[in-house]
Write a structure and sequence with these properties.
four-stranded antiparallel β-sheet; binds zinc ion
Length: about 60
């Protein structure tokens, strides 16, 4: 993970935002980690917390 992500947080890639059925999703523009929009802000997507059968499995990489 780039040092800048540790310092100021991840930055979602605005051009790669998509909706998985529950939340908007993207990836960090710097380190490519998956992110989701929740409560008005962006957080890292954590499968242990956010995994849900209702989500589309489509990703911007496919
Ligand atoms: Zn990052």
């Amino acid at each position: 993970m780039p040092m800048i992500c540790r310092l100021i947080g991840h930055r979602r890639n605005r051009k790669r935002v998509w909706h998985d059925g529950l939340n908007y999703r993207s990836r960090c523009a710097r380190c490519e980690l998956p992110m989701l929009r929740q409560g008005g802000g962006w957080a890292l997507f954590d499968p242990a917390v956010h995994d849900d059968d209702r989500r589309s499995t489509r990703d911007v990489d496919s």
